[in-house]
Amino acid sequence: MDVDVDLRLNGKIVTRCYIDAAFSLEFWEKGFRTVIRIGGRMSIAQGGLHLELSASKPTEAAQASVLWGKTVAKATGRKDGSLDVDFADGYRLTVPVDPDYEAWELRGNGGFLVVSRPGGGLAIWDSK
Q1: Which residue among 45, 53, 93, 98 is least packed, with the fewest CB closer than 10 Å?
Q2: Per-residue pLDDT band at 3 (split at 50, 70, 90)
Q3: Closest to 9 in 3D by CA, of 31, 45, 36
């Protein structure tokens, strides 16, 4: 897709962070679940804090749990395949494109799925 995509998370709160083979942020609201799953590099910044983390390294990924309980101000899947999530308190999560793998994906309600394609771009499925 050749446009930026609103990931429909504005005002939602991170209700869970978890690590398995990747790092995930989960949002529960009114019985509906949305998950952002990050498989590669990510950056978290706020004021003087700047973390460069790998989701595939549990000890690094654990530091991203600082996002638990935060409210999303805006979340955007960029047309180049990167991810930007701005939080109400000034934190920012960014995930760059991975040349070989899906860097991140978002699974939401009603079949809404956005995937960062290897090498760049987005794949989007939406039942609406």
Answers
A1: 45
A2: confident
A3: 36
Phi, psi of 116 (to 5 degrees): -75, 120
What CA–CA distances, in Å, run from 37 to 47, 48, 52, 56, 74?
A: 25, 26, 17, 11, 17
Q: Is the pTM of this model over 0.85?
A: yes
* C-alpha dist (Å) from residue 77 to 30, 102, 109, 123, 124: 24, 13, 16, 10, 10
Beta strand spans in 1-128 (E): 5-6, 16-19, 23-29, 32-38, 41-46, 49-54, 72-77, 83-87, 92-95, 104-107, 113-116, 122-125
Specify the pLDDT at position 117. 97
Per DSSP, the three-state class of 82 is coil
The pLDDT of 66-91, averaged and rounded, is 98
Angle at 99 (CA atoms; ends 22, 54), nearest 5 degrees: 30
